[in-house]
Amino acid sequence: MAGYRGGFGGGFGGGNQMQQLMKQAQKMQEQMAKAQEELEEAEIVGESGGGLVQVVVNGKKAVQSVTIKPEAVDPDDIEMLEDLIMAALNNAYDEAEELYNEKMGQFGGAGGLF
Distances from the Cα of 76 to the Cαs of 2, 21, 86, 108, in angstroms? Predict the structure, then answer.
């Protein structure tokens, strides 16, 4: 009777190779989870109007806070305030996108795999 050497039938390779692949996948999953946690904890500030409007988002673009200084509010020009808020949000989102690409870019297209 021949001895069992492990591995899979069909010439797939040894069980040791499969173990290595599983370890690599697990390590990548752990690294991705850590990067996603760092993104959630990050605080990115976007400003407009020289600091009149400030928006804080996390690395996943979730708004954490909005601060509007009183001098930014002109009841006769609400459109300006709307523009300031939009500009601050876009600024924060751009920076959050850069952070996301920095943290998750190393995983290629696998960002949603795990």
Answer: 90, 64, 18, 49
